[in-house]
Amino acid sequence: MRIKLGSKSVVAPVLALVAIVGLSAYVRSGNETEPRYFTAHVGRGDIVDEVQATGVINPVVTVQVGSRVSGTVARLNVDFNSHVVRGEVIALIDPALFEGVLQQAISDLEDAKATGIAAGANLDRARATLAQSEADYRRQSMLVQIGAVSKAVEETSKANLDVAKAGIVAGEAAVAQAMAQVRLKQASVTVARTNLEYCTIRSPIDGVVIARNVDAGQTVAASLQAPVIFTIAQDLTKMQLYAKTDESDEGRIRTGEQVEFRVDAFPGKTFRGVISQKRMNATTVQNVVTYDTVIDFENPDQKLFPGMTAYVAIPVAAAKDALKVPNTALRFRPSLDSAALRSIYQRYGIGDTRSAAAQSGAIIWKRLSGGRLEPVQIETGVTDHAFTEVVRIVKGELRPQDEIVTATADASS
Length: 413
Description:
The chain has 6 helices and 20 strands. It has 4 domains: about 10-45 and about 320-410, conserved putative lor/sdh protein from methanococcus maripaludis s2 fold (Beta Barrel); about 50-60 and about 235-320, Beta Barrel (Elongation Factor Tu (Ef-tu), domain 3); about 65-90 and about 200-230, CATH 2.40.50.100; about 95-200. Strands 2-11-15-13-12-16 form a 6-stranded antiparallel barrel. It has a 4-stranded antiparallel beta sheet with strand order 3-10-8-5, with no helix packed on it. The protein is of the alpha+beta class. The radius of gyration is 47 Å and the shape is elongated.
């Protein structure tokens, strides 16, 4: 049978009718050559978008205790996991050498003090000599005036007076030099006594020893830097997690947010913490840039140890009691050409799908009774990468428990 179309105005309705008939034939079941559908139901519930990251557990405060002096470790009073208090003696460097140095410095100080006393005595003698020379010069001057002695005697007396004055200057200089030596030797004694005190190593904080790096009898050298003997964590009941987060997620992570994390040591337990800081120290590994996100958490039972690897889930968006669809349904498209799809979209009042996608929109296909498919245009929101929130239904109807298509397979496959 031939149908002659008298005008172009009937072409579009006929094409749309053909497309719908074609879609009906496509979705009709009962023929082994026609596709079968995998479907899911529209649901309702909470959706949480999370950033996944890994990190390392660390104490809030960690102090490395080292030795400021070189020598042999004579004694270790604590070991791994030992609880220490501030000021407690935790190690001892052999003090014999430093005790000898201190005794020598003390002897040098006493010698400098004796030299100072001698210089003071010489200065007193010079002052006495000056007084005698001044008196002698006055007498000689009076005798010269009355002609009792010659002028030469007066000149000799004047020279002796000048020598006495010079002796005063020399005596004062000797006393000043002696006092400087006393101060120098006193400083040497202070340094020697301080080094001797450094042989006794004390804990700077209250905490727990988490590392011991030397053994008794081992020699430590502090020539360039203090060798670390112990590492002490201040309080293991309050700890921090340093999570490595990708640079693309930094704009979505907020301080003060509650997070959850797991560790391999307790696979069935979830721990919780709070983001306290987003650090700006970027780390680049193979062109991947990450930042440290610091998470504070309580560890009252001290189950978690420093250095453990943690797997963190950081929530960045959430939707409560939302209408949600599987993400696979957002990716499904019937195997029809673009012209047929456009005709179907026009039939159901769906606009330009490209602009819908630009507006976070999507098209899903609802399966009706009899195997028919019906497109529904929606606006999407938060996704947890398995389900996506339906923010608004743009065209069509969608309710919880509606059956939507997620994939198709023909009979041969």
